[in-house]
Structure formats: C-alpha cells, structure tokens
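Sequence dictates fold. Next comes a concrete instance:
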Amino acid sequence: MPQITALMTTFNSAAYVQETLESILNQSFSNFEFLILDDGSTDNTVDVIKNIDDNRIRLIENQENRGVGYRLNQALSLLNDTRYIAKVDSDDVSALDRFKTQYDFIEKNSHIAAVKSYVEYFADTDSVAMSERFSLIKHNKEAEINAVNSVDLIDQQLRRWLCIPHTTYMAHTSVVKKIGYPNSRMYEDYSFFYRMLLQGYKIGCVCKPLVRMRISESSTTANSIESYLDTGLNVIVDFKFIQIRKLLQKNQLFIYGSGQLARSLCRVLQRRGIAVEALLERYLAPPVVLSSGLEIPVKLVSEAMPDKSQAAIIIAAQPVRAEICDLIKRAGWEEWQDFLVIA
C-alpha cells in the first residue's frame, strides 16, 4: 500500500504540467500514488497526462469546470488508505527529495499534523523575470513566507494571512479528510489551513526550499476587477466571521488601509449590512467612494486613533500588516478582541 497520495487538480495546464509530473514521478521516495483530477480542461492537459506511462498515476477526468475546492473535496472521497497527502499544483516543480524530506519530518514529529516547506519563486519567461511584480514576489513575498518557519510562528501568522503556499504541504490523510475543503474557487487553501489551526492542529516547516513556484504572464498581472476581489474577500470573511463577530460587539468598526483590499472589504461588509465608520491611514487621502455611491472618510491614524473601548479595527493593508499590528498592540489593543488582520 502506498504511504503517500500526491494530490493534484488540473485545468488547462498543458503548457507546464509535463515538468510538474516529472518532478513528482522522479521523487527519491517512490512509494506513493498520484491522484490527478482534471477540472474540465479545454486544452490537451489530459492528453499530456495520458501520454505518461506510470502505474502510480490515477487520472479522474471531469467534463465540467467546478473549481479547485470542489475537485479537492471530490478527491478526498476517492483516496486510497494512504497515511499522508502531499499537495501538488500543476504548474510548480518539486525538489526530487521533497517527499522523503517531508515524510521523515512528519514521522519524527508526532505532534505535527501538517508540514510546509520553504519556497523558491521562478519566472516562466524572460519578460516575467524583468517585471516589477516578479521582483516584488521574488525578493519580498518569498522572504516573508519563508520567515514563517516554526510551529509558533505559523500559529501566529496563519491567523492573519496565508503564510503556507498550498503546493508545499504534506499532512496526515485523516486530518485532511476531517477538515475538508470549501466548495470555493478562491481561498480554499486559506480556509483549509485556518480551520485546521482553529481545531488545534499543529503545522510545522521544513526549512529548505522543496518547491519552486512558477510565476507566469497571467500570475504577474494583478487582477483588480471588483467582482474578483470581492468574491475572494467574501470567502475570507465567511471563515473568519466568528472572530469578526467579536469585533462587531463594539459600537464602531474601522478599517486600516485605503487600497484595493480595504475597499473590497468595505464593499463586502456593506453587502452584509455592516457599517464602516472610517478608513485609517498614515497619510492624507480623499474619502473613498464605493461603487454603491457610499462615501467613507479616510482619517489620519496619528490624529484620529479611535477609543478601543468603543471601536474595533480590521487591518486590510498587506504590505504593512506586521508593522500596524505592532503599532496597535503598543497602544494597548488586544488582537482578536479589539483588532484583527483580514488577509
């Protein structure tokens, strides 16, 4: 019986799935099955997979595109009795010792339910490599993710933001099946890890880059469409709503930030009937006018820091989230009681 199920969903991945497949099938730890669910690809992704002759591959073809969360839940119902699941994304490349390294780690640490690894981002093309967004991802995001490298740090930071790249984890199959995935096209990974943490499971880290994550032309273009942003934020608000509800016991709700994330959060909360008093910033800015016509003032945090006995703050400013958390804590605010980070 295989010890590990490598689990991958695909959708129109023909351009790069071959490299991903080879990185998995050539693992030094060979005692695994490779369960692949295609989510209604319209290119030749399925043909590429079928052209590989390896009896460890179990391909499930689906005609309809239902999204990653739906297909992962489908996969959990199809699993054989393996001890561990190793998540694989169809455009990333695993180090050949990834499974062996993570298997040994989780075997030696019985208190760990799942383990992530360091990541290394790479550019798909020369034009991507020259882009400003890739430079920020490579030099900032990569370091930020890899710095969250212990059980305690993961426990702290995962409650704030998605510090575990989905494609890097290995976990006990029993835990993954118990937690399950939401039937969501976005943030199914954050929901999964967040709920794992809330149920008391511990997540560790192998401090070694075991997965190279591809940045392509499409992934270097920030999608700023309102409906796209709002759909994602709505998913996050759903699984963090137990914590958000505690903040709503206060008379006023403020959001720290005035960028796209903060504006999207305002729209999502407005649709739920939750009023935002104002946006807080470190610099002067004009009021934010939502697509609904609602105008929300922007106030200088240095001049208008609210009274924590009456107000709560949700931080929606990703580049400075850690700095703002420290600032608010020094002012006597308590995380989860007086403020929280949305993403």
Summary: The mean pLDDT is 95. Residues 226-341 form a domain with the Rossmann fold fold (CATH 3.40.50.720). The chain is about 35% helix and 25% strand. The radius of gyration is 21 Å.
